[in-house]
Structures are given as structure tokens and as C-alpha cells.
Amino acid sequence: MTFQWVFLAELKGEKGDLGTWLQGLLPDNTDLNNVTLTTHTGLWYIANTASVLTMTNLPPGVVTGPGTLVVERGPASYGYTTQTYTVMGTGPQRWWRQMLTGSTWSAWKRLDNGATVLADGTDLNTLTGYNGAGQYYIPNEATAATLVNKPAGAANRASYLVVRSGNASGSSYTEQVYTVLQTTPSRWWRTLISAGVWSEWERIDGAGYFVLDSGHYGTPNAYLIDEFNARHPMVSTGNKGVVTIRLDHGLTVIKTTIMPMLNSGGRNWKCLIAMNSRNWAKAENSGASMADATAWIDAGHEFANHTADGNATGTHKDLDTKAAIWDGIVVGKQELEAQLGRPVEHFIMPGTTNGMGGLSTGASISAFSSTYAGSLIMAFHAVFSGSIPNTRFRALDGRIKQGAQHYTIEDQTVTAIKGQIDIAASTKTALQLMLHPRNLDQPGYLTTANLTEIFAYLDTKIAAGQLVVLGASDTHRATLEPVGAALVR
User: Nearest Cα to 438, choosing from 272, 251, 162, 311?
Assistant: First the structure.
């Protein structure tokens, strides 16, 4: 369908006198908030920049002239006044606002689709509702560095912010889009969920911040598993069950008590140590050094990422935002690898109050794939623990068992622990025994004598040809059958 202009009439005639509509020059030192009366209605002219600089309550960032101000108002009984301000010259601008009550003005709104320069120190959380809506320009690195509540991953560069909102003043329906203007640009988005509560900034340009959602974990995790399998050849248990030993931090007790036990009486048992990269100085860990840790690794023991943590008052720091989850899981792994000088392949789930944004204890593969924390764990670690039901006793078939459970022994009786070991032996499955070493010899927990008895019981099972004790990676790659036998039925 096409349209065309249609001539209706030729309207001609002499123009009437503008009368008081053309008001003339706006006096220097004028406060625009006071230009509200019926007698002020009309067109005012601002002569030059010098005059502009004497005036107050101009549109934000207007510091040059010449310009015009149009004031519109009905009779004295009519309570509304509007002002339209136009900046003339090579960088024209047009602004509009209205008086809402007898003395309260709305915010100036820019009408020409240009962007307003954002002031240093602006808190982006305050740009909401009708008054905050608009387009804003961050001119340089210095201004960007002063902004409050901008995206945590956004570089301090010249940037552009678009704020959209509902019509009502103070409307809670607000979204913000923040774009960093550089050779490789980045773009971020968030929304105001309710009064004062914003969603997390989401990177929406498809690159850089590794924002993962359901389905995106598969390729990187599959690659890491292939690399893991190449580094850890399949081993045969000789048709025996397996016990593997996991120690969650507590390096001080590991060095003084447990490590000597793992290597006494002809034993050469290997353990998996879950460690937080920012907790070396804690009392439970400070009795051992990074050099001790690397020596243990070189002797065949393994370390797992347990998040960065750094919580001074508790064991596991809650990761309650995306930025915190990224920092805890990904940066924590990078820090631990740098500290140990060795790759870290395992992730051990920490116990947190809020469950890392819905992941909780990792009770299903879908819990990993459908949460941000779970996706990061899968994307950056070949193997990870969890609490998937019925996985305490793992089949020995040479295949990695992701998200498997462990058996915490520190608050169990020796009899109960022996019973679990018996199940692993009789069913020819793998059982992971987990202990927080810092709790050893503490009231209500296992004693060193208890642990000695448990290890001695394992010795009897090994001597009887019912069990072997393997390291964590070897357990994942262990099979009951001779290595090389067909595993696919």
C-alpha cells in the first residue's frame, strides 16, 4: 500500500501580531523554576553562553548558548506549566519538563534523542522510573571509574547507558542497558525487580564473561573429561571393592597426624584434599605450607577446588551473586592452581547456606546444567562431587561418576564406618570416606585412636583380598575387570 499527499486548501493571509508571546531576552541569573506564571507564557531568548552560566535549574549539562525557552500555561487557575528548552548551535539539544504541583518540577527529559553526559559518581541504582529514563553518555575512563553499581565486569571506558521505564514517576518497571564503547565492545543488561532490588547485571553480547546457561556446559566438560582420561589410564582393582579417602582442608592435622598414618605400616595410600585458595592462613591450614602441599601432590596425592572462600568467620562463604559465584569457583580454581603450580581437575562441593544460586548440594545433573554455579563447575573441572541419590557406592566400570555422594565419617561410630566399608567390599563398589581433619579429637567427633582403628580395619580387608585403597582419580578410572577387557555390554 502506498500513500501520497493530497492538496486540501491554500491557506493564506497576513500573520497577526505575536503580542506578548514573544517575551524577549531571559534575564541573567534567572532561576527557571520560577518561570511559571501566566504572564511568563511565551518564547524567551537566551543570548549567549555568558548568560546561560548565570542561570539555575537549566537542563542537565547545558552550559552553552544561545538558546530559547518556551513556557506554556493556561489560566491562573490551571495548575500545570511546561517548559521546552532548546540549545542552538552546532550541537543542538531540546529538553522538556512540567510542573507537577505548585512548586515541584518533573525531571528534564531530552527530546532530540541525544545522550546526556552522566555526572561523575552517579549511582546507576538511582536512575529509575520516569525521572531516570533516558540515554546517557559516559565520556571517558575517569568518569566510568567513579560510577556506582555499574556492571562489575565492564571496563572503565567511554560507555553508553540506556534507561527505559514506565510513564509514572517512580515506576518500578525499569531496565538498563550498559554498553562499553571500545574496539571489542561489551553490553550488559539488568532490570529493577521491585523497589530498590535490581537483578544481577547480565552480559548480553555473547562473549567474555562466560555466562553459561542450560546446555552450554556439555562441550567444555566433555573435553576436560577426555583430557582427564588421557592423563589417568584405566586401572583394574582385581575384582575388589575400593575405598578412597577425602580430606576437606585442615592441612595442619593432615601434616601432623593423617599423612603419617597414610604412609605407615607398609601403606602407600593416596588422598584427595579439598582446599580453598584464600584459606591458607587459617589455623586449621597454617601448620602446613604450599611447599608441603606440592610435595604431597608429587607423592601422588591430589587437591580439589573447594571455592576461593576467604570467609573469616565460618567454613564456607556464601556465594549469593553471579559475580561472587564466578569469583569463588573460577577465580578460586585459578588461584589454587597458581599456588600449587599444578593443574586442579576436581571440584568438591562446599556446604553453603544459600546453595550457590539454586545449585544447593548438586542433587542431580540438571541442578548443575540449569544453574550458573553448576555450569561453571562443569565447564572448568573434569570431575565434581555432588549428592545425586544412590551414588554413595559407585560402580567400578572405568567411567567417571559425576556428582556422586561421599560418606562423612567424622561424626559416625567406628562400628557404623566399618559397616559401610563392608558394603563396599561385598558389593565390589567404590566408597569415598570424607573427614574434616580439624574435627579430629574434638568433642563429639572421631579420635585419632578411632581413625587408627578404621585404617587397621582397611588393612584387614586388603589382606583378605576384598578391598584396595585408591586415590580419587584412580577410583574414577577403576574397573573390576582386567584392563583392556570389553566394558560395553
Answer: 251
Instruction: Calculate the CA 34 to chain-centre distance.
Output: 48
- Residues with Cβ < 8 Å from 384, sequence gap 6 or more? 346, 347, 348, 349, 362, 368, 377, 378, 402, 403
Length of the chain, in residues: 489
Ramachandran angles phi, psi of 202, nearest 5°: -110, 130
pLDDT digits (tens, 9 = 90+) for 197-225: 888 888 877 544 334 444 444 456 888 99
Distance CA 138, CA 115 (A): 9
CA 86 centroid distance within chain: 43
CA-to-CA distance for 190 and 211, rounded, in angstroms?
Answer: 14
Cis peptide before 350 (omega within 30 of 0): no
pLDDT in tens, 408-462: 999 999 999 999 999 999 999 999 999 999 999 999 999 999 999 999 999 999 9
Q: What is the DSSP string of 54-75?
A: T-BSPSTT-----EEEEEEE--
> Could you tell me if 381 and 347 are in contact, meaning their C-beta atoms sit under 8 angstroms apart?
yes
Cβ proximity of 261 and 455 under 8 Å: yes
- Assigned C-alpha cell, 322: 553471579
From CA 333, how far away is CA 342, in angstroms rounded? 11
402, 394, 398: which is closest to 366 by C-alpha? Answer: 402
Instruction: Please give the model's pTM, rounded to 2 decimal places.
Output: 0.61
Q: Are strands 81-87 and 116-117 parallel, antiparallel or unpaired?
A: unpaired
If we measure between CA atoms, which residue out of 180, 184, 187 comes closest to residue 206? 187
Q: Report in angstroms the alpha-carbon separations of 446 from 107, 259, 279, 412.
A: 67, 16, 24, 7
How far is residue 430's CA from residue 423's CA, in Å, rounded to a whole number? 9
List all residues 6 or more positions away from 435 whose beta carbon is below 8 Å from its beta carbon: 245, 246, 247, 248, 408, 409, 410, 446, 451
Residue 272's DSSP bridge partners are 246, 302
pLDDT in tens, 251-269: 999 999 999 999 999 999 9
Q: Which of 393, 379, 302 is nearest to 346 (CA)?
A: 302
* Alpha helix (H) residue ranges in 281-331: 283-286, 290-298, 322-326
